[in-house]
Amino acid sequence: MIRTYFNGKAAIWDEIAAEKDQSKLMQMAERLDIRPGSMVLDIGTGTGVFIPYMLHSIGCEGKILALDIAEEMLHRARAKGFNGAVAYLNADVAHIPLLEASVDSVVCYSSFPHFQDKEKALAEICRVVKRGGRLFICHSSSREAINGIHNGIPEVAHDVIPEEWEMREMLSEAGFADIVIEDNCENYLCRALKKG
Asked: pTM for the whole thing?
């Protein structure tokens, strides 16, 4: 159902839902501490709204693997012709088609609430990220604002950002440590480190 919903929204996504404040997106990307040359898995990439900002962080030696369950979203992202190394994966976060410990960082920008099985998704993310690698779950609005928006849309009414204690518990059980969660009126950022 979630795949159908996002495929149906792909053509108008950039107009109706994407963050329009480019400075906000740039600031968020800078806060993610993604190093030049990194292999970054962008889960729920959608139409690629956040890709240019991550490309800026990884430089010419890095690579982005843009994963989304909705093929129409990926089609829109690919059509933008980003200037950098970007590969596209049409897959579910619960079944990531990558080898173990194959990426340096995982970014979930404006996508985590839509993971239908969050525990399984986090376990799969932990599997593909290298030891010492980082997971970033980020939004350009607060948890309360995101959840409020989703609650008003029947198709995604149950797709919410969990409370802080629940996020910490899920991340820890999946194999992450050093969990830091920032939630304010400007944005939501959860960062976690894969245990060594």
From this structure: 0.96
